[in-house]
UniProtKB/TrEMBL annotation:
Protein's name according to its UniProt entry: Nitrobenzene nitroreductase
Domain of life of the source: Eukaryota
PANTHER family: NAD(P)H NITROREDUCTASE YDGI-RELATED, NITROREDUCTASE
InterPro entries (UniProt xref): Nitroreductase, Nitroreductase-like
Cofactor (UniProt): FMN
MF terms (GO), sorted A to Z: oxidoreductase activity
Residue ranges of domain Nitroreductase in the record: 24-210
Recorded family membership: Belongs to the nitroreductase family.
A Pfam family it matches: Nitroreductase
Keywords of this entry: Flavoprotein, FMN, Oxidoreductase
Length: 237
């Protein structure tokens, strides 16, 4: 390889570094979407890219359902009815909703304060808070709803695999100008709408679409991330 091609290679790699880091750092949870349809081909390309990700023993334990139009609307209708009827979650895994250690609970409180505070809702305005929570079950009016499922016979390692797959989808979406946000799930209601194996459980829902950046700017202050010093523990260097 000549020095020219080494330089060219370096430049190309450097650009890749900039793009990838930018996508990772500038992505955010979009809770406001434009009513612009997402082409089916974009979802296919995004999932195709995520599907190339690594998994323990190459088991690839994920499935993802992409809901459009009337199929999405019918699910939203049923989930909203369940939410308004105060039906309990039917999530098939423990998402640590209670007894969260203080370190993590503090971040959760901070997020709540930011989400409701930015929308001008006081912490004790329960009716308004519920109205905002209901938006979760509408997938924040995003044009596409994704449902990620996992085989329930697999152990914790499969959740790692799925998390990597989901992040792959988020990055691939961001690269196409689409934003994504994980949402809650009513496992049993979703099962009635999608024909997935009884061995599979809903791990995560996701809204995906083109963000309404003006609304985001007005209503969302992204929560702080932990500092590098706090997270990275370099030893032996
Ligand atoms: C597994 C998972 C579930 C989430 N569930 C919700 C949710 O139900 N509602 C919501 O508004 N945000 C949800 N989020 C988004 C987080 O609140 C968000 O990622 C976090 O506050 C950091 O903000 P950022 O994504 O803008 O960097 C979820 C994120 C993940 C990874």
């Amino acid at each position: 390889m000549t020095s020219d091609t080494v330089d060219e290679q370096f430049e190309a790699d450097n650009l890749t570094v900039q793009i990838v880091d930018r996508i990772l750092k500038e992505r955010f949870s979009a809770r406001f979407y434009l009513p612009i349809p997402v082409p089916r081909s974009a979802i296919e390309d995004i999932v195709d890219a995520a599907n190339a990700g690594p998994s323990g023993f190459n088991m690839q334990p994920w499935n993802v359902y992409a809901l459009f139009g009337s199929v999405k609307d019918a699910l939203v209708k049923d989930m909203l009815a369940a939410f308004h009827a105060d039906e309990p979650s039917t999530a098939k895994f423990d998402n640590m909703a209670v007894n969260v250690p203080e370190e993590f609970a503090a971040r959760r409180r901070e997020l709540g304060a930011r989400l409701y505070g930015a929308l001008g809702v006081s912490q004790d305005d329960l009716a308004k808070k519920r109205e905002i929570q209901a938006r979760n079950f509408r997938f924040f009016d995003a044009p596409v709803a994704l449902i990620f499922t996992l085989n329930s016979q697999l152990k914790e390692g499969a959740w790692l695999d799925l998390g990597i797959f989901i992040q792959g989808a988020i990055i691939a979406a961001r690269a196409r100008g689409l934003e994504a946000l994980s949402t809650p799930r009513y496992n049993d209601i979703i099962r009635t709408h999608l024909n997935f194996s009884p061995k599979d459980i809903v791990a995560c829902g996701m809204a995906m679409g083109y963000a309404d950046h003006e609304q985001v700017r007005q209503n969302y202050v992204r929560p702080a991330k932990r500092s590098l010093e706090e997270v990275l523990h370099i030893v032996g260097a």
